[in-house]
Design a protein that fits this description.
The structure holds 2 protein chains of 2 kinds.
Chain A (H helix, E strand, L loop, with lengths): L23 H28 L7 H13 L8 H35 L12 H15 L9 H21 E2 L2 E2 L1 H25 L3 H12 L11 H16 L1 H9 L1 H6 L4 H23 L5 H13 L3 H25 L8 H19 L10
Antiparallel strand pairs in A: 1-2
Helix pairs in contact in A: 1-3, 1-13, 3-8, 3-9, 3-11, 3-12, 3-13, 4-5, 4-6, 4-7, 4-11, 5-6, 5-11, 8-11, 8-13, 12-13, 12-14, 13-14
Chain B lengths: L2 E10 L2 E11 L4 E5 L6 H8 L7 E6 L2 E2 L5 H7 E4 L11 H6 L14 H13 L15 H14 L4 E5 L7 H14 L2 E5 L3 H7 L2 E6 L2 E6 L1 H4 L2 H8 L2 E6 L6 E6 L1 H4 L10 H4 L4
Parallel strand pairs in B: 3-8, 3-9, 6-7, 7-8
Antiparallel strand pairs in B: 1-2, 1-4, 4-5, 9-10, 11-12
Helix pairs in contact in B: 4-5, 5-6
The chains are: A mainly alpha, B alpha/beta.
């Protein structure tokens, strides 16, 4: 231990110690490779996900159709029916899955840092419960009919935003937002809203409506259209860029509340902005795809096990990994019980839970093990 | 870098925690703040590194009110070594120290070779260079403390605040950490709970009790039996140690006054509650 003092100064690069932990210097070189690899994996996943379905379509055809649609240049042998399936049905759906998966993973990272709690997820502030109440009002009671097909999303988003504002207001104390108060207020309000929703479901007498409520709650990207993609993609990009630019303050915040202050981070203001960004992103994702669980909680942890805690790495890697994960979850959702669809939340938990447990057992140094 | 604390008061729910506290740390000085638990020493330090905004009074560094400075500018002047850990979020030692560069970096700027050189020399200075790639959570208490000091060094602040830096450390590491900090020759304001260590390392000490400064001077002048009894509630014998030439304080536990009446096994209550 103390003998190290006598060691000659040499580059940490050369030290053989602690091969387990992600090394900063090594990462400097390795990180671009990881990101590039994940980008390729995402592209391959998107392509394959579009080919899979009741009507099989060759991967090459997928891109020929895409290119011809986008530029009018490519040509090949495919039927109009195939073109419609690929371009109008599968592409938007697969892309929405990617955007939502990416968004939830990124918000999960931000949320865990904001409240400095590894158990936090995008829904910790009650945003999803609020969205659910809005959605149930639309599905069961036909609120917002004048908005047509957007009624559900708009109502869900409004429910999310309103809940967020209430949580933020109630959690204020002496002009500051303490993480613990935020979590407790969020959890308490979630219960109230869930009860409200359960009550409405209980009072509703149409079985079909109740079924659609349940399905919405567990999440789905079925029926996605190109027009659904613009807003979440925009929100995802703006949110992620902001968070990546704040990676240093995020690191400081995770290292400790007062540590962050002593490093020049205005934690009060910063936390407020983080909350708004996270609530916006979550609200949009939930409004479009329902309250898909697990991704936002476990994806950040899984990523940290591989690349460490530094947000400059965790955020981009979570974005890509979350996107890839949800694309494949959606593939399973529409194939395992054909012609029925499984809710995404069921699969994320079934797949992700055991995987994460396995990973945690394998990496014994993580999560409180082997501490001196 | 010099610190001036003038008439600082702070209260919670009309319960005064700090009452018109005044203190000064001159350039290059190592000044300690001593007091029993709950006396306000941590609160005073927190108001200096801007974690706690006092209700009244002024805290200035080189003449500038720290609460009117931009947070990042304040952090470039003052570094703090605190009793806080990232918990379940595990950083590598290198990243912990690199964090010290936070107040020097703009949103769009990347780490430069200079930042890396500063981190490396900071780690070398505290003897932790070989641990750069180790996970912070797996370090021992003394090693963690050295890493946090390295972060303060990388922060390049000329004023250092230490909140009980020797807490939970074995004797050897207590001395090692304080030797290390003294050797840095940075202006330092430290809350300490060990009076002997304070006497050995501090140029001057402030004694705080119930939120008020009750004494301030060189340790030899301040740490006398009467004050120790009044402030800390223990009887003590104070002498100059022949070998160190520093104050040596021996606490006289209440039960030591009377010779042990019972022989044999010590009562169980003696074994518990030892801090």
């Amino acid at each position: 231990m103390a003998t190290v003092t006598e060691r000659p100064a040499r580059s940490p690069n050369g030290s053989a110690a602690a091969a387990q932990s992600p090394a900063p210097r090594r990462w400097d070189a390795r990180f671009p490779v990881v990101v590039l690899g994940l980008l390729v994996a995402l592209l391959v996943s998107l392509t394959l996900a579009v080919t899979i379905g009741p009507v099989g379509i060759a991967p090459l055809t997928v891109w020929q159709i895409a290119v011809s649609r986008l530029t009018g240049l490519a040509s090949g042998e495919w039927s109009a029916a195939h073109e419609n399936i690929v371009w109008l049905i599968r592409f938007p759906r697969v892309l929405l899955a990617a955007v939502v998966g990416a968004g939830l993973a990124v918000v999960g990272v931000a949320m865990q840092a904001t409240v400095r709690n590894p158990l936090a997820d995008p829904y910790i502030l009650g945003v999803s419960s609020g969205a659910s109440v809005g959605a149930v009002l639309v599905i069961l009671f036909g609120v917002f009919q004048f908005l047509g097909i957007y009624a559900l999303s708009v109502a869900a988003f409004l429910g999310a935003v309103l809940t967020f504002i209430v949580v933020l207001t109630l959690a204020q104390h002496r002009g500051t937002l303490s993480p613990v108060r935020l979590i407790l207020v969020g959890v308490a309000l979630s219960y109230v809203l869930s009860a409200t929703m359960s009550f409405m479901v209980f009072r509703a007498d149409e079985a079909e409506g109740i079924r659609s409520v349940l399905f919405w709650l567990m999440g789905s990207v079925a029926g996605a259209k190109w027009s659904y993609l613009t807003l979440p993609l925009l929100v995802l990009l703006i949110g992620t860029v902001y968070l990546v630019l704040q990676a240093r303050p995020l690191n400081a915040l995770v290292a400790g509340e007062e540590t962050a202050v002593s490093l020049g981070v205005d934690t009060n203001r910063f936390r407020r902005v983080l909350m708004v960004v996270a609530a916006m992103m979550t609200g949009v994702m939930v409004a479009l795809a329902g309250a898909i669980g697990f991704v936002g909680l476990m994806m950040p942890h899984t990523v940290r096990l591989f690349v460490g805690t530094d947000h400059r790495r965790v955020l981009p890697v979570s974005l890509l990994a979350g996107a890839i994960f949800l694309v494949w979850v959606d593939v399973l959702a529409r194939t395992v019980v054909q012609p029925e669809e499984m809710p995404l939340g069921v699969i994320t938990a079934f797949l992700g839970g055991p995987f994460f447990l396995w990973l945690m057992r394998r990496r014994k140094d993580a999560f409180g093990g082997n501490r001196t | 870098m010099n610190l001036r604390v003038e008439d600082v008061s702070w209260s919670v729910d009309s319960q005064p925690i700090l009452q018109e506290v005044g203190a000064e740390v001159g350039t290059g000085e190592f000044v300690g703040i001593l007091g029993p638990n709950g006396s306000g020493k941590s609160s005073l330090l927190r108001s200096v590194y801007r974690a706690l905004k006092p209700d009244a009074g002024c805290i200035s560094l080189n003449g500038d009110d720290v609460w009117k400075l931009d947070p990042r500018e304040a952090a470039r002047r003052t570094a703090a070594v605190l009793q806080e850990s990232p918990g379940e979020f595990d950083f590598v030692v290198w990243e912990m120290v690199l964090m010290g560069r936070t107040p020097h970096k703009k949103m769009f700027s990347r780490e430069t070779a200079e930042d890396h050189a500063l981190v490396e020399s900071a780690l070398a200075q505290v003897g932790m260079l070989g641990f750069a790639e180790r996970s912070f959570a797996t370090l021992s208490g003394g090693e963690k403390q050295r890493v946090l000091i390295a972060r303060a060094l990388a922060q390049q602040a000329r004023f250092l605040v230490l909140d009980e830096p020797t807490n939970h450390l074995d004797v050897r590491y207590q001395l090692e950490i304080l030797d290390l900090v003294r050797g840095l020759q940075v202006t330092t304001f430290a809350a300490l709970h060990d009076l002997n260590l304070a006497a050995a390392y501090c140029d001057r000490v402030y004694i705080i009790a119930a939120g008020r400064i009750v004494a301030a001077d060189a340790p030899e002048a301040v740490l006398q039996p009467e004050l120790i009894r009044n402030v800390f509630g223990v009887d003590a014998e104070v002498q100059i140690h022949p070998r160190t030439g520093k104050l040596h304080i021996v606490y006289l536990p209440a039960h030591a006054a009377a010779p042990a009446a019972t022989n044999g096994a010590p009562a169980a209550s003696v074994l518990v509650g030892v801090d």
